Amino acid sequence: MKLKLKCYFPGEPPFITQITVEGNDIVESLLREFHKRLKEVDYDVPLRDLVLHKADVKIMPEVDLTDRVIQWLRIQPEAAELSVLHDIGDVFTEALPNDTLHIIVANAEIKELLDFVDDPQARSRIQIKKKLRKQFAKLSSSPSPSAVVRSADALAKFLNADGHPVCLDQVPAAMFSPPLAHLQRALAELGDLEVTEHDVSHASSFLSNTIMSYHNEDSRRNAIRQHVDHLIGEPGQWEERLDRVGNIQPDASWWQGEFPVAILELKNAPGIGGDPFVQSLADYSK
After folding, report:
1. In 3D, which of 162, 179, 153, 175 has the Cα closest to residue 270?
2. Are residues 50 and 156 in the same domain?
3. Domain range spanning residue 39?
């Protein structure tokens, strides 16, 4: 006799699946199949930690299904846990309703929530701690901050890694850059500042291109050149050697007659040996 069992795991996020078994299969085979399906959707739950319960919880309404499952688990005695040695046909001797969960699966973390059924904030804190533990475990195995910033490839892998270990928005750049700190203070009082649609477009494009990773400074210079010229208000002298001021060769300069009013020196984010700002991001993630 085949049985179609609706199984539910009230994790974060919850997981539900239907498993077809034979009545003479033992509960252990059902447990192993459920664990296999959990792994297929990237749950990291050891098989030995899972416990099955025969349940009779209505599926609808779905909006509070997890809460009702937690409530149901709270009032179940330990004897309600299914022995892995029992035949499934001996556990389910009557017809199975289609609108009901037949099996509820729990582990130690789920049972920890049972003491906080009436305290959603406590349950939320437990779940946050769980996620943080997983995140810290990932970060502890990542390269050292100094290794991250030694090459553009390593930096790109770090910034775009699964789970996004570091986000540029989370670190206040003003902490590491006095000019940006000054800019932040200036932006707090815009006063009569007037900007055009073109100004906004170029500023947005400049920022977008600036935060990208480049393999060398030439690529970075080519990506931002037109936007820098526009924002300053006139084309600069790019990559020109300045004999009149010590034969230096900045990335760009802007002049008023015989006097330089702005000199630009680019620093590619990874740099040679690492850039302090990017390394601070790696330190922050660690």
Report:
1. 153
2. no
3. 2-130
Residue that terminates a domain, selected from 96, 130, 164: 130
Model confidence pLDDT, tens digit, residues 202-239: 888 888 887 777 777 788 888 889 888 888 888 999 98
Q: Which of 8, 107, 104 is nearest to 49 (CA)?
A: 107
**Domain contains 165:** yes
What CATH code is carried by the domain that includes residue 23?
Answer: 3.10.20.90
Letter string b/e over residues 197-211, b meaning 16 or more CB atoms within 10 A of that residue's CB: eeeeebeebbeebee
Would you say residue 108 has pLDDT above 70?
yes
Q: How high is the pLDDT of residue 123? A: 66
The structure's pTM equals: 0.48
d(CA 127, CA 275): 36
Average pLDDT over residues 101-121: 82
> 222: how many CB neighbours lie within 10 A of its CB?
12
Residue type at position 275: D
- What whole-number distance in Å separates Cα of residue 153 and Cα of residue 149? 9
Cα–Cα distance measured from residue 206 to residue 232, given in angstroms and rounded to the nearest whole number: 12
Top pLDDT among 163 and 220 is at: 220
CA distances from 199 to 163, 169, 223, 246 (A): 34, 23, 17, 34
Mean pLDDT of 133-139: 66
Decide the pairing of beta strands 2-9 and 15-22. Answer: antiparallel
Residue 53 pLDDT exceeds 70: yes
SS3 state of residue 190: coil
